[in-house]
Design brief:
The protein has 479 residues and is α+β, with helices and mostly antiparallel strands. The chain is built from 15 helices and 15 strands. A hairpin with a 2-residue loop joins β7 and β8. Bound molecules: zinc ion. The site of zinc ion (ZN) has 8 residues, from loops.
């Protein structure tokens, strides 16, 4: 029998707010010493009162709007009770029956060229727990992460393969970064996945029994864990066994999922409305205001770069996948007016220097306006592409204004044709053998003369004009 996987994803992204969800501790905890971003509120001391961070709610709604979700006017926070050493309160503050957003969806582009819409059940807000590190001597706990704000994005069980799930997760990451709701940087622990997987005979409508595997923290482990679970369940079903509904963990070294505990039902968490936080009332005006903040998303941008700017698909996708890169490109293009050349200079020359320095585009030493100016100088014929490449590193290092740099260095293309003709004539006079070869039909001999003229002018002549002038002079000469 052939089985079809049914996959749903729960994605946790840390909201990119300045401070934590209910206190004033900094939310920027990466590489911080353990237990330095803590206070009585996020440490769960008795009697402390949480105060909901408005920025967290707004960014959560912003993320939800970018996923096409509906925003109900009224939602609330709930207590989700469970006991674990990294959760000092003894409960998580999450959202149960009235989340801040519902009913959205995004579209993914599959490798066969088709597209598919993946439904999103809800995006809700919740706080994160601390972090346990198990060592030989015992278990260490770091509460820096405790109380940092999360949005949990729950998909419909619409995914049917590892490929679809991976594309969906990557798409979510791009969208969250584009709207600035989350940096979703997995290296910094800002994005994690839980996967729900079940199998059913192809053609059957009812879902099979599912397993849930928690806390996958890279795209690679997401894909590996999905492949493993699909294979594991297929083997159980093919041998006539039954899949157990349970929560599993992922062992990144052995690349296997491991049974952890029976699946909890909602009742196990004893949800009830969080008494210390008033309900969240979202007005229509607030939603409209947030909608205005949503920029053009990467898919639309890539389409526009192709249809309006005439860029090839590869350039369009490369430029638009990162909001900062796209913004840099657009700022440079505004000055240069030349889409393809600007894209070339950005994606090859500038990227090479940034990569060598280990910098991202937002950390670039060169301002986009100056890249735009350089491209314009080439486009206007004021300097040659070769000169531009020669001086680019210097311009980049010092964020120089290319116009001034070219002027100061005397690198402008020789526009004085009289002067250029004089030099060409001198080169012709000095090279009777090459001239004879050329006149004898050796077309290639001309490049020898062009090279010498370029050498004499320090590369500041336009090779095309040199070519023309040489041909003209040679045709006139009677040598
Ligand atoms: Zn705190």
């Amino acid at each position: 029998m052939e089985f079809e996987p049914v996959i749903g994803l729960e994605v946790h992204c840390r909201i990119s707010s300045k401070t934590k969800m209910f206190c004033r501790c900094s939310n920027d905890i990466f590489n911080a010493k353990p237990n330095t971003h803590v206070c009585p509120v996020c440490m769960g001391f008795p009697g402390m009162l949480p105060l909901l961070n408005e920025e967290v709610v707004k960014k959560g709604i912003l993320g939800a709007l970018a996923l096409g979700c509906e925003i109900p006017g009224f939602s609330k926070m709930d207590r989700k009770s469970y006991f674990y050493p990294d959760l000092p309160k003894g409960f998580q503050i999450s959202q149960y029956d009235l989340p801040v957003s519902v009913k959205g969806g995004i579209t993914i582009a599959l490798s066969d060229g088709s597209t598919k819409r993946i439904g999103i059940t809800r995006l809700h807000l919740e706080d994160d727990a601390g972090k346990l590190t198990h060592t030989a001597g015992g278990t260490l706990v770091d509460f820096n992460r405790s109380g940092t704000p999360l949005m949990e994005i729950v998909s419909e069980p619409d995914l049917r393969s590892t490929e679809e799930a991976s594309l969906y997760a990557r798409q979510l990451q791009k969208i969250m970064r584009y709207v600035g709701a989350s940096d979703a940087d997995m290296e910094k622990g800002m994005m994690r996945f839980d996967i729900n997987v079940s199998l059913r005979p192809r053609g059957q409508k009812e879902f099979g029994v599912r397993s849930e595997t928690k806390n996958l923290n890279s795209f690679r482990s997401l894909e590996k864990a999905l492949d493993y679970e699909i294979k594991r369940q297929t083997e159980i079903l093919e041998s006539g066994g039954t899949v157990v509904q349970e929560t599993r963990g992922w062992d990144d070294n052995k690349e296997v999922t491991i049974s952890q505990r029976g699946k909890e039902e909602a009742a196990d968490y004893r949800y009830f409305p969080e008494p210390d936080i008033p309900p969240i009332v979202v007005t229509r005006e607030m939603v409209e205001e947030l909608k205005k903040q949503i920029p053009e998303l990467h898919d639309k941008k890539a389409d526009r770069y192709q249809s309006e700017l005439g860029l090839p698909a590869q350039d369009a996708h490369q430029l638009s996948h990162d909001a900062a890169l796209a913004a840099y490109f657009e700022a440079a293009l505004e000055v240069s007016g030349e889409p393809k050349k600007t894209s070339n200079w950005l994606l090859s020359e500038l990227m090479a220097l940034l990569n060598a320095d280990g910098l991202s585009i937002s950390e670039s030493k060169l301002a986009p306006e100056n890249l735009g100016k350089l491209v314009k100088l080439i486009e206007d014929g004021a300097i040659t592409g070769k000169i531009a490449k020669d001086i680019f590193k210097e311009i980049y290092e010092g964020n120089l204004d290319p116009e001034k740099a070219v002027e100061e260095k005397g690198l402008k293309v020789m526009s004085d044709t009289g002067e250029l003709e004089k030099i060409c004539q001198q080169i012709i006079d000095r090279n009777p053998q090459i001239v004879a070869d050329f006149k004898g039909g050796k077309e290639k001999a001309l490049s020898g003369l062009v090279g010498q003229v370029m050498g004499v002018t320090g590369g500041s002549a336009n090779p095309k004009s040199v070519n023309e002038i040489l041909r003209k002079l040679l045709a006139e000469s009677t040598l």
